[in-house]
C-alpha cells in the first residue's frame, strides 16, 4: 500500500508498508515499526534550532520568527512515529505550521503505538464489513488514510494553554479533559498518563503520552 510520504522517509515508509494485511506481510508489523523508528532516530535535523531566536545553528535564518510546533515535532525521538503521521496528514501539518492557531499535541510515545492491538489506520468495523481486503486497492487506501487522519486528529486539542478541568473537543470530536491525579497529569476519560510536556512554543505544546487516546 502506498500513501503520501513526507518528513523522515526511512521511518514513514517502513511504517506505512505495514498497512497490507498481516497474511501478506513477511514479518510482524511491530518489528517493522521498531526497525522504522530506530532508523529514524539516527537521522538528525540539518541544524540545531535556537528555540529563543528561531535561528539555525549554521547562521541566521533569512526570515527569523517565533518557534512553532512544526519546528520541534520532528526533534522529539520518543514520538517520531506519531510526528511522522502528523506530517503525512496535510491539514494537520498545515495547522502545526500556522502560528495563529494554537494546539496542544497529545503525542503517544513510540512504545505506546507499538503496543496497540491494531495499526493506527485500522478499524475493526471495516474488517467486519469488508473482510481482510478492507485496505486493498484505491478505495482501501483512501479508507486507511481517513482512519489515520481521525486517529491523529483525536490527539490534537485546538487549545493551548489547556487549563486543568476544562473539557474540550479534539479535532476529531473526542471530548477530553485533564486533571492532576496522584501527582501525575492524567487525561480523561481513560486515565491516560502524560509522561512529560516536551515543548512549549509560540503556537502550542507537545505532551508525550504513555498510551493512545481511544477513538
What is this entry, summarized?
The protein is an alpha+beta fold. It has helices at residues 9-16, 29-41, 69-72, 80-88, 90-97, 110-114, 124-130, 137-153; strands at residues 103-108, 156-157, 168-169, 175-181, 184-188, 192-201, 204-209. It is built from eight helices and seven strands; from the N terminus they run αααααβαααββββββ.
Could you characterize what this model shows?
- With 215 residues, this protein is α+β, with helices and mostly antiparallel strands.
- Helix content is 33%, strand content 18%.
- The chain is built from 8 helices and 7 strands.
- Strands 2-1-7-6-5-4-3 form a 7-stranded mixed sheet.
- A hairpin with a 3-residue loop joins β5 and β6.
Topology:
Elements: H1 9-16, H2 29-41, H3 69-72, H4 80-88, H5 90-97, E1 103-108, H6 110-114, H7 124-130, H8 137-153, E2 156-157, E3 168-169, E4 175-181, E5 184-188, E6 192-201, E7 204-209
Parallel strand pairs: 1-7
Antiparallel strand pairs: 1-2, 3-4, 4-5, 5-6, 6-7
Helix pairs in contact: 1-2
